Amino acid sequence: MRVLIADDYHEMSRKAAAIVNSQVLLKPDCVLGLATGSTPLGMYRELIRLYQNQAADFSKVTTFNLDEYYGLDKENKQSYAYYMNTHFFNHINIQRENTHIPDGLSADINEACRRYEQRIAEKGGIDLMVLGIGTNGHIGFNEPDTNFIAETHRVMLKKETIQDNSRFFKSAEETPTMAISMGIRAIVQSRMLLLLANGEAKADAIYKTLKGTIRPEVPASIIQIHPNVTILLDRHAAKLLL
Ligand code: GLP
Prior knowledge:
Layout: E1 2-6, H1 9-26, E2 31-34, H2 41-52, E3 62-65, E4 67-69, H3 80-87, E5 99-100, H4 109-122, E6 128-131, E7 153-156, H5 159-165, E8 178-181, H6 184-189, E9 192-197, H7 203-211, E10 229-234
Parallel strand pairs: 1-10, 2-3, 2-6, 3-5, 6-9, 9-10
Antiparallel strand pairs: 4-8, 7-8
The structure holds 2-amino-2-deoxy-6-O-phosphono-alpha-D-glucopyranose.
2-amino-2-deoxy-6-O-phosphono-alpha-D-glucopyranose binds at residues 35-39, 66-67, 132-134, 140-141, 161, 165.
């Protein structure tokens, strides 16, 4: 496990983008796993900048997003589909048919989840999975007490996650209480993991993830078993490690 500590959010984002772009340069038709949330926004901005400077080419890249809210359609400004389009896909040369986000509106959620897993397998699995982390240690929307061998599935969000995410909605009542998330299994089967965290609010989750025992109460702790993990933090998120 490599732990890199950046001075600030900008440096963290630049380094994250450099790692993602290295993967794309080494394997132009690679499969990326992508995260949403406020953490990777700077990384997406930097990847767009690299693309505009002709230093990045996404034309052959395939992507699978980690998660989506249950019950929000793609046009909803709070959906992760909308987030990915506005913050990344609309600004680069990725082919839309190569981008995948769990469908939070499917009439048959179990079937949609099964197809999502199948599609990942058909593409040969994920080369590089970018992860954020919840303050309660969740990855994707795999909440504490998650099943470590779970596949893509519907999850009930925990109170603290609904609270954390309510900042993007008009009120806590409007914040979705369910989501579709890639399971821990597909995440851990990715060939390389890149976990990003910034800000003091993540320090405790990062400490438990890296130094604690591997347990379902801290879903991210499972990454300790992975042979190729890079943890990229700003100083604030790394506070309890120093
Ligand atoms: C959300 C997402 C996660 C994300 C996490 C942290 O609940 N489902 O994929 O990593 O919260 O979000 P943020 O980066 O905004 O702190």
